[in-house]
Write a structure and sequence with these properties.
mainly beta, single chain
C-alpha cells in the first residue's frame, strides 16, 4: 500500500507561516482527491483542507482565508501553506486521499506557541 510522507512541520510563533509537504512512496497523487487532516492532543482527526483532482478546494471554517492546499502533479507532491498561524492550529498534520482511504503516514507536528 502507498506510504505517505509528510514534512515541513515545526515550532512557530503566532502569526507566522509554515508550508507542509506530502509525497507518496509510490503511486501518483493525481489519481486522487487529496486532503490535509490534523489531530490535536485529545481530539479526533479532522479534515483541514481538501482538493479535488480538477483543482476545486474546500476548507474547514477554522482555517479559511489562512490555509491553502495545492498540488504539483509533476513533483507528485501536495502542499499546505499555513499563514497567520494560531495556537489552536497546534496539531499533528497528515495528508491522505479525500475522503481518507489510504494508509496514514506518521504526520508532521506543528506547534504554535509564543
Amino acid at each position: 500500500q502507498v506510504q505517505l510522507v509528510e514534512s515541513g512541520g515545526g515550532w512557530v510563533q503566532p502569526g507566522e507561516s509554515l508550508r507542509l509537504s506530502c509525497a507518496p512512496s509510490e503511486e501518483r497523487f493525481n489519481i486522487y482527491n487529496m486532503g490535509w487532516y490534523r489531530q490535536a492532543p485529545g481530539q479526533q482527526r479532522e479534515l483541514v483542507a481538501g482538493m479535488f483532482g480538477g483543482g476545486r478546494t474546500n476548507y474547514a471554517d477554522a482555517v479559511k482565508g489562512r490555509f491553502t492546499i495545492s498540488r504539483d502533479n509533476g513533483k507528485n507532491t501536495v502542499y499546505l501553506q499555513m499563514n497567520s498561524l494560531k495556537p489552536e492550529d497546534t496539531a499533528v498534520y497528515y495528508c491522505n486521499s479525500w475522503p481518507a482511504r489510504l494508509g496514514w503516514g506518521k504526520g508532521t507536528l506543528v506547534t504554535v506557541s509564543s
